[in-house]
Amino acid sequence: MQLHARRRHAVARRRLLIAAAAVAMSLAAVLCFSRVDPSGLLAAPARALQLVPPRRLHVRLGAVKGTTATATPAAGRKSRPPPLETEAVLLPDWEVLVLLRPGAQDDAAGNATCAFGSVASSPARALGKLPASGRRAYLCVVPVPARRQRRLRAPRLVISSSSSSKVSTATSGGKSPEILRWSSRLVYESAVVHGGDVLVFAKGVNPRQGVNRAASDIRCVYYRRAGTGGDDAVVASLPAATSAQQVFRCPPPPSTAASQELRVTLAVAGEEPLPSLAVYAPPRSGSSTTPAPEKKLICACTMVRDVAKFLPEWVVYHAAVGVDRFYLYDNGSEDDLADQVHQLNSAGYNISTVTWPWAKAQEAGFSHGAAVLRDSCEWVAFVDVDEFIFSPRWNQSDTPTESMLRSIVSSVEPDVGRVSMRCADFGPSGQTSNPKEGVTQGYTCRRRAEERHKSLLRLDAADDSLLNSIHHFTLRPGFRVEWSKRVRVNHYKYQAWEEFKVKFRRRVSTYVADWTDPVNLQSKDRTPGLGFEAVEPVGWTHKFCEVNDTLLHDATRRWFGVGFRNNLTTVGHSSSSS
């Protein structure tokens, strides 16, 4: 009897302790989110820093805790200094993105390998450096044997030195942490933008198109990562100012807190903070010996993957009609993009490449571009590499001039923040392979209807939320959209099948279904008559041919000669002096 009584008392005490803990956690959440007046946040972005005292988080905020790399020294050589701490995230199609920690010194010229424990390994491909933190990114594929593991852990990064056959091998003194999943909620990038605000890019907070969680429900959490076994220390928790798609605008942390490396994540009301890969990189203070680049009238921004062979034609043409600079968001290209960019820059063109390895994050990439380019460009054309801005009136000119496109934006009223241009979609035009003379001269038959549109955006007119539908942005109050009657976009959308079928790999837009997904069958984002597999439809070479249109074909032949895509040295470019 006494034993049963003691057991009943013990159970009662445990229940009481559990209830007390639950009440304490609820009160902590209420106190955290009651620091901000929701109505005030909805009315205007909060600028006053509202800090919480430094505290320890019981939730593990860090992404993948450091796998470290230590060099195996050759005989007579000193061991390589600091270890390579890495983080990793599993992307679609069993691809793994491996990021070196900020400031890590790796051998960029060496051969890299991802080692998945003792099970298997695969080659790692260098992607470049992420824009905000400068962290070097690598991509590898999970080998089939490793996919069978119940818990997939972050791979070890093995880099062979360019000067030695010895390798530096990632070791962690134990098991590597579990890998982060791109399919889950994740903060993946950040950027400090005009005015000092911080953009935080996150998956999973606003997963549905057109449905955005209120900014008043979200806090921006800046924290320092702890060492092995410790808890991450929060240094500031501030209210988000905007919430749209995968982009969240946050106030910066206090300058005193940013003296050391900080991470940034998001905390949604009533939920645990999201795991984060994002590093807060404060703007550099003091004078710089490198002058700021001259602000140009028109830039072009696009996302690319394995389109290097099309790049020269697109750049040469648009530079000739008035585009001053080009920004390419590289989504993991495996072709010779870097070589093509180098050749074009050597020929006098102005091209910058931004590493953007995130899957199906085109809208977020363009939001990033619209924010970070504000001090470099007045207007930006958000068009793809298979799209060419053109006016039928230009066909009457013997030579292209930069005033052709510049006159479009210079002539609008001061309250015009976006110039929209209708698209003419061209078909295969009888081609069975990529035309050697280029797309503008090789595809000459198009659809009659103009269903889509692209835009030229005045960057200071973009809404603070940076909300966009890939190629056109929401504008701030007081600005309006003007539809151009002078220019259109020639979209070489339905090319020869060998080129078009590449699209089946994956579409880059966040909210557009992949070609292989059997959903949204009637959507205009789908190609009429195309199934869900990369199988050439009957009669493809002559589809989408309703109007024979040779206007741009004739103009480019007259301006640049036949196949100017391969004759860069014959093309003059003077915009760099304007």
Automatic annotation (TrEMBL):
<dbReference type="Pfam" id="PF01697">
    <property type="entry name" value="Glyco_transf_92"/>
</dbReference>
<dbReference type="GO" id="GO:0016757">
    <property type="term" value="F:glycosyltransferase activity"/>
</dbReference>
<dbReference type="InterPro" id="IPR006311">
    <property type="entry name" value="TAT_signal"/>
</dbReference>
<keyword id="KW-0808">Transferase</keyword>
<dbReference type="InterPro" id="IPR029044">
    <property type="entry name" value="Nucleotide-diphossugar_trans"/>
</dbReference>
<dbReference type="InterPro" id="IPR008166">
    <property type="entry name" value="Glyco_transf_92"/>
</dbReference>
<keyword id="KW-1133">Transmembrane helix</keyword>
<dbReference type="GO" id="GO:0016020">
    <property type="term" value="C:membrane"/>
</dbReference>
<dbReference type="GO" id="GO:0005737">
    <property type="term" value="C:cytoplasm"/>
</dbReference>
<keyword id="KW-0812">Transmembrane</keyword>
<keyword id="KW-0328">Glycosyltransferase</keyword>
<comment type="similarity">
    <text>Belongs to the glycosyltransferase 92 family.</text>
</comment>
<protein>
    <recommendedName>
        <fullName>Glycosyltransferase family 92 protein</fullName>
        <ecNumber>2.4.1.-</ecNumber>
    </recommendedName>
</protein>
<keyword id="KW-0472">Membrane</keyword>
